Amino acid sequence: MISASLVKELREKTGAGMLDYKKALEACNADIEKAVDWLREKGISKAAKKADRIAAEGLAAIVVDENKAAIVEVNSETDFVAKNSEFTSMVDEILKAIINNDVKTNEDVLNLSSSEGTINDLIVNKTAKIGEKLSFRRFTKVEKKDNEVFGSYIHMGGKIAVLVTLEGANEEVAKDVAMHAAAMRPMYTKESDVPTDVLEHEKNVMREQLLNEGKPADRIDTILQGKVKKYYEEVCLENQIFVKAENKETVAKFVANNGGKVVSMIRYEVGEGMEKRVEDFAAEVAKQMNQ
User: What does the pLDDT look like over 160-212, one tens digit per residue?
Assistant: First the structure.
């Protein structure tokens, strides 16, 4: 009997597909180390050899299906592979699986059925075929009401993806807001979305700055209000000055003037917050020649 813990351990060691690591454990009488060798000998654990590589390139993509939409980020090691049809078709399959199923976590997504077993199997097999580490980083699935509209925008061929939901207004206005968000990089949709600890940290930094500038202690709180307002204008979509506005109106005002209000905004920028791979072409060639 092959235990779930053994299967999990072999999966973590090799990154092979579900059927493959069950076969390996059965063939090797549940001996983990022999099973790893068995998979290596079969060429199945090729993907695992790339586990320590940096995958910070890739694609951000969106699918909209009536009242449902999904946005994902799937990573590769190089931008070249991110444009490969094998990679883009994989991203499309992941999006389709998400939109057609009830999923809450990355693990839920990786366990969905795919053309090659599960989504995890699909990624492992594509990693082996393409020859780069590929990874599913994140997703958000959104469902809107009938009186709401989606606006989506993909920038730089999938480097940035934005999905906006508006109540009222229309899809053209929603797309304009999505394009604005792509360019202006808001971190939050509205003021209430800023976490309390983040805001308090910013206020503490501002307060220290004012004290260091020699501002009178009895005026600090008043000046701080203006600084917090400025902070919201920088990081909150609704508070930002709309890029296409001629009269300096905010995004919230622009949407309101078009009969709507902002419900949500999700913005993915590929590789944000991740360590980037440093390319050294000469070293890579030398490494390949010495293998």
Answer: 999 999 999 999 999 999 999 999 999 999 999 999 999 999 999 999 889 88
Residues 6+ apart with CB under 8 A from 122: 90, 93, 94, 114, 115, 116
Phi-psi region of 170 (alpha: psi -120 to 50; beta: other; left: phi over 0): beta
| Residue 148: strand pairing partners | 167
Using CA atoms, how far apart are residues 98 and 103, in angstroms rounded to an integer?
A: 7
Contact 178, 153 (CB under 8 A): yes
Dihedral through CA 78, CA 80, CA 83, CA 88, nearest 10?
Answer: -40
Residues 6+ apart with CB under 8 A from 59: 73, 74, 76, 82, 87, 88, 91, 158, 270
What are the Cα distances from residue 282, in Å, to 82, 170, 245, 287? Answer: 22, 52, 48, 9
Interatomic CA distance for residues 76 and 83, integer angstroms: 10
Taking alpha carbons only, the member of 81, 94, 93 closest to residue 134 is 81
- pTM summary value: 0.77
- The burial class, CB within 10 Å (0-12 / 13-18 / 19+), for 63 is buried
Give the separation between CA 251 and CA 175, rounded to whole angstroms.
Answer: 12
Measured over the CA atoms of residue 144, residue 148, residue 153 and residue 159, the dihedral's sign is negative
Q: What is the pLDDT of residues 76-96, one digit of tens each?
A: 999 999 999 999 999 999 999
Flag whether pLDDT at 97 surpasses 70.
yes
Tell me phi and psi for residue 149, to 5 degrees.
-130, 150
Length of the chain: 291
Tokens representing 233?
């204008």
Full set of structural domains in the chain with CATH: 4-50 (1.10.8.10), 53-143 (3.30.479.20)
